[in-house]
Amino acid sequence: MGAIDILEMAYAAAKTDEQRREIVLKYLERVCSPDERKVVEDFPQGLEWFNTMKPLSLHKDLKGKLVVLDFFTYCCINCMHVLPDLEALEEKYPITDGLVVVGVHSAKFENEKTSANILNAVLRYDIAHAVINDHNTVMWDALDIQCWPTMLLIGPSGEYLLPIIGEGQRKKLFLICEVVMKFFKSRGEIITNVELPMITRLKDSLPDSPLLFPGKVEVDDQGNNLAVADSGHHRILVTTKEGVLLHCIGGIERGFVDGSFQEARFHTPQGMVWKEDVIYVADTQNHAIRKVDLKAERVTTIAGMGEMGEHKCQWGGAPGPEQVLSSPWDVCLGGPDDSILFIAMAGSHQIWGLFLRDSKWLAKEIEHNANVCILYAGTGKEENRNNSYPRNASFAQPSGLVNPHVDYLSCMYVADSESSSVRSVSLKDGAVKGVVGGDLDPMNLFAFGDVDGKGRDAKLQHPIGIAWNPLNQHLYIADSYNHKIKMVDPVRKSCSTVAGNGKAGKVDSSTLEEVEFNEPGGLCVSSTFKRVYVADTNNNAIRVLDLESNTVQELKIVFPAGSQPLVAEVSSLSLSAQPIKPIVPSKTPVMTQPQVEATVKGALCLHVNIKLPDGCKLTEGAPTAWMAYVKGDTPHLVLSKTSIPSLDEPLSHQWTVPSMARDVTMRIEVSVCYCEDSTGTCHMTGLAFEVPLKFSEGSSDCDLTIDHRMDL
User: At how many degrees (to 10) do helices 17-31 and 170-186 cross?
Assistant: First the structure.
């Protein structure tokens, strides 16, 4: 039995931390003795490094440091769970104290071998330490690494110390590093107060953009508005289907805070489901489910405690806010009257259910109280194991979830990313079955590829998003590492490519076959069922697939400008135009002048002309929204129109207002998107004008013109 095996057995049997420290100290004395001391070779030449100004040498740059090598692959949820532990370790022991963390990326999937994709992962996960692309697993093989994640400790003179395998090892990692640091410091071998040629927090150098690594996108019940999980900015954006911002929920800094939309904080939110005025959000790295109330404009936590729970082989059963969760990645509604919120628990490889109301358990008709959160399917083992009994089935990082709400199917579908398959889970008895992809061997999680076909003959590569199209009764899949959108017929179990040429890139306004994506993470289908909105994660964009015209375009997210009031002219009257939430009828007060006597016999022709500030032009491809309505307790809509104007045409619109039997106030709202020629800075400004009108019988038709010049 080797020294490491003896250490592990003794460490597990120890009852106190002091005993564990003694065990680790004795182990270090043994493996650092002249007879057993083993020195690790320097980092191989020719590997690409990230977060450093140059490749580092283990025996030169890192001499005198305790080095923690983190062997990871960026798709792996278990590897993601280790990153907060390493971040905390780096805070306790900065480089100047003598400890250095180096990530060694040894890819599972072919797509993960590419340096550009690893760089995106470093940015997406906000990794500050150095990372090596071990694309051919040279270091993995040389150091006999067996699984992800593995943290290998190396002494200040390159001594091979010991590996720490798997997630959930923070306490062990900290205790061992504490003993190792004291051991080598007592021997005078740790060098302190020396920096390294590092570039930390590459994410801070990214240019400002509306979106940063968006994970998922969802459409409301009516198909008018979208919710975007702006995961890299730790927030939820609600926009019109044309991309005009309605709500920004959360801030760009991560956190775990309930409250108003401005106060609330998320940490890398992902999947969402929208029901009437509520959006349920899988707040992935807060290990929580959040409820976004659009009417009250508040965020509340309905499940999870803000920290990762370990619940393999556990069934849950606690009230939502008291139940620990593990990296929930997506959600969908099901059960009687959608009373259950199902959760794709990527971190524990399971499907859970949160009861939103008192309801019966679907499989066994057992009564459950509202707010209870409980396991529905999955053993917790990372496998691709189908079974008629849901708690005997196994998943491998389920990351996409959809319920088609179709009686003849009566199941939800799962994008099971690590098994590269699509699975079904019955809503009647919980039976788990394969649909496409994967392998007959439930332990084989390497059966991936890019092959259209049926059943297991079809091959996917890390599918992570899934949506249902009621029009053709098919599933749409974000096949992330193949950079494609695929379509699955769940009855025939067939899979075919809808969009994407398989290359990681970004090509807009192209045919569906030629378009390029970069690791798309989520998607949803429009209310007309003729468009598919795609969260194109590494392109920091929402892309729109038009299934009729066979084209793809980017949806521009347009943010409001600042809150400075603007001055408008209505004929010869001076009115105030205040920034407002675009498109939605607003209660923002607007100053008005005494009534304009519009003596109208038949109708009023109302013109609005807007002139952009000098040196500005309309944002190409961005919509302009126009709305006019009669104010009152129940606003009467006269006309609403959203269009993408020609850059060469004047910015104007006109309405024909029918004659009214009473005096009214007309409210006009306009949202305009424009960019400054000199700086390239783009703005979205909401304008509101209110015009009191008085109608008189027996008079002639009348024109009323509003001319407004915008200022920066």
Answer: 50
Which residues lie below 8 Å from residue 470, measured CB to CB, with a gap of 6+? Answer: 404, 406, 525, 529
Instruction: Say which residue the tokens 């392998």 belong to.
Output: 439
Residue-number span of the structural domain to which 601 is assigned: 566-709
Same domain for 671 and 550: no
Amino acid at 512: L
Cα–Cα distance for residue pair 478/601, rounded to 1 Å: 58
Q: How far is CA 234 from the centre of its chain?
A: 8
Report d(CA 180, CA 363) in Å as an integer. Answer: 52
Q: Given the structure tokens 């409820």, which residue do they identify?
A: 291
Give the residue from 503, 531, 555 where a domain finishes.
Answer: 555
Q: Are residues 45 and 138 in the same domain?
A: yes
Residues 251 and 327 in one domain: yes
Joined together, the tokens standing for residue 131 give 């990372």
Q: In total, how many domains does the chain have?
A: 3
CATH number reported for the structural domain that contains residue 104 in this entry: 3.40.30.10
Q: Are residues 540 and 606 in the same domain?
A: no
Q: What is the pLDDT of residues 573-585, one digit of tens each?
A: 222 333 333 333 3
Shared-domain flag, residues 331 and 363: yes
For the stretch 333-392, pLDDT in tens is 998 889 999 999 999 999 999 999 998 765 566 788 899 999 999 999 999 999 999 999
Q: At what angle do helices 170-186 and 77-92 cross, to 10 degrees?
A: 40
DSSP for 536-584 reads: EGGGTEEEEEETTTTEEEEE--B-B--S--EEEEETTEEEEE----SSS
- Is 271 within a domain? yes
Q: pLDDT tens digit string along 244-257?
A: 889 999 988 899 99
216 and 302 assigned to the same domain = yes
Q: How far apart are CA 44 and CA 688, in angstroms?
A: 64
Q: Kindly report the CA angle at 675 between 669 and 679, in degrees rounded to 5?
A: 150
Task: Specify whether 549 is located in the same domain as 572.
Answer: no
Instruction: Return the higher-pLDDT residue of 5 and 566.
Output: 5
Which candidate, 273, 428, 436, places its Cα nearest to that of 364? 428
**CA distances (Å), origin 177, targets 59, 167, 169, 190, 255:** 20, 16, 12, 13, 28
Query: Which SS3 state, helix, strand or coil, does residue 21 take?
Result: helix
Residue 163, preceding bond cis, omega within 30 degrees? no
